[in-house]
Amino acid sequence: MNNLEKTNDSYNLLIKQISSAVSDAKKQIATTINNALVETYWNIGKHIVEFEQQGNARAKYGDKLLVNLSKDLTTLLGKGFSKSNLFNMRLFYTRFPIFQAVPGKLSWTLLAEIIRIDDELERNFYLAETVNENWSSRQLIQQKERGLFMQLALSKNNAGDNPPIGIILAKEKDEVMVQYAMYGNNNNLFVSKYQMYLPDVEDLRKLLYKKINL
Q1: 70/23 Cα distance (integer angstroms)
Q2: Tens digit of pLDDT for each residue in 5-60?
C-alpha cells in the first residue's frame, strides 16, 4: 500500500469518526429533549389535577377548564396546548402519579397512546411490550388496533389427551373477553366439552401480570 492509499484510508476513517460523533450527539440531544418534554407534560398534568381538586376552583371553572386553558396557553405559549393534549397530560399524571415510575425510553407519542387504555392489565401489557420490543408509535398503534393483547396456547402432548385449545384474550367494545379456539378439530366438537378444564379469566390475568413482571 502506497502513501496515497494510506492517506485516503486515514481520511475516510476521519470522516466516519466525525459522522459517528455527530450521529451520537443528535441521538443524545433527542433523548434529552424527549425526557424534558415528558417530565414537563407530567408536571402540567399534576398542576391541572391539583387545581381541579380545589373545591372553589372546580366549581367556578367546571368542565370548561381545559377549554379555557387551551385558549389562554396557546395565546401565551404557542402550539402544543390543544384541549386533547391537555387532557392527555392530565391523564398522564393520573396514570403515573409517581414520575419515577414512567419508563425513560418512551416518547410522549408512545405514552399518549398507552395512557388512553382504560384497562390496567392491558395498559401494563402494552407498556411492557413497547419497552421490551422497542416498538415505534406505528407498531404500537397497529397492535392496539388488532385488539389482541395476549395469546396463550395451551396444549397437551401425552397419548389420550384432548386436542389442544388455544386461549385468546382479546379486546372487544372496551371489555376484555376470553375466546376458546380449537385447532384442527372437528367442527362438531364443542368447546363446552372442555369447559370444566378451562382456566378462570382472573387466573389468566394473574399469569399476564407475572409474565410482564409489573
Answers
A1: 36
A2: 667 888 889 999 999 999 999 999 988 999 999 999 999 999 999 998 887 777 77
Integer Rg of the chain from CA:
26
Taking the model in full, what pTM does it have? 0.66
Cα separation, 63 vs 197, in Å, equals 49
Cell 408509535 identifies what position? Answer: 137
CB 204 within 8 A of CB 152: yes
Question: In 10 A of CB 169, how many CB atoms?
Answer: 21
| pLDDT at residue 61 tops 80 | no
Give the max Cα distance, the chain.
83
Query: Closest Cα partner for 186 from 161, 160, 163?
Result: 163
pLDDT tens, residue by residue, 159-213: 444 544 444 445 444 444 444 444 444 444 434 444 444 556 666 666 666 655 5
Between CA 41 and CA 108 the distance in angstroms is 9
Report the length, in residues, of the chain.
214
Q: Report how far residue 141's alpha carbon sits from residue 2's, in angstroms, rounded to the nearest whole number.
A: 56
Q: State the average pLDDT over residues 62-77.
A: 92
Residue with cell 387532557: 87
Q: Which of the 8 DSSP states describes residue 195?
A: G
Question: Helix 108-115 and helix 83-95: axis angle, to 10°?
Answer: 70
